[in-house]
Amino acid sequence: MKWEKLGVVYDPTKSENRPDWRYDFAQGINSLIYEDFIRIYFCCREKPDMYGRTVSRMTYLDVDKKDPTKVIQVADHPVIELGGLGEFDEFGQYPFSVIRDGDIIRGFYGGITRCESVPFNAAIGECISRDNGDHFEKIGRGPVLSYSYDEPFIIGSPKIRKFGDIFYMTYCSGRKWTIRDGKRAEVCYKLRMAVSKDAVNWEKWHRNLIQDKLGENESQACGDILYRNGVYHMFYCYRGHEDFRRNPAHSYRIGYALSKDLITWERKDEIVGIDLSEEGFDNEMIAYPHVFETDGETYMLYLGNEVGKYGFGIARLDGEIE
After folding, report:
1. Model confidence, pTM
2. pLDDT tens-digit map of 148-158
3. For residues 313 and 1, what is the distance between their CA atoms, to the nearest angstrom?
């Protein structure tokens, strides 16, 4: 397959009058199709405080259906409130994935908790919009998917799809933290799946979906699935364990796998058809893909360098998924 890069959709650093809560980064991208436009939800970071700490907030922008690189408007508010004192999403919400379900829109997001021995922990929360995607309300103060006996930390990066009458959520599950030479602790996580009939009560499969390619410390996230001609096609990202934020040799790449039953996946990264650019905002990494279809076209949204610090781009599928 082959993807044609159309360009950068949004770079928050080029907005001179942006509010402090939307200071930089545009991560965790997910689309929602409307009659006349495409809404793209993304997560931004507040301006850091005096200690360099920040939190991630969820918001959106709308783009032209005929030209998805043309931004129509950027929302002037976060779509959901941060968690209260001690709650799982007190210090941020990232990434975000949405799906229409009858008259409502369901959203799933990673909630961030600050820690002492490691930088953070995460669990997955759920929210609902009843005003056509402008604001969301949490279904409760706690997560719908959290760490458990064989998944001790970092449950995040939800991607929601519905096939038949079952909701399927891919998510990343933390497998280990490591600290080397006194540097920042780094986490390793793998792609996993949970299913639900009501999108509230979830059953984990307790197994990794994708075999490792870069060794046991490879991290995988953001598994987004399309169904075509009896085959499920999953696009995801993967990276090395250390020095991945600025070193292209270890940074995120987009991968591809296919399955006929959503359980057993064949990894075929070599045919994904999209990679780093020679220059520009995505010449060091491409990460966190989201694929969607509209008006007979298939698109991929993806993050650029430093995991979306300079925004996200869009690519269009040239031909068919093979």
Report:
1. 0.96
2. 999 999 999 99
3. 18
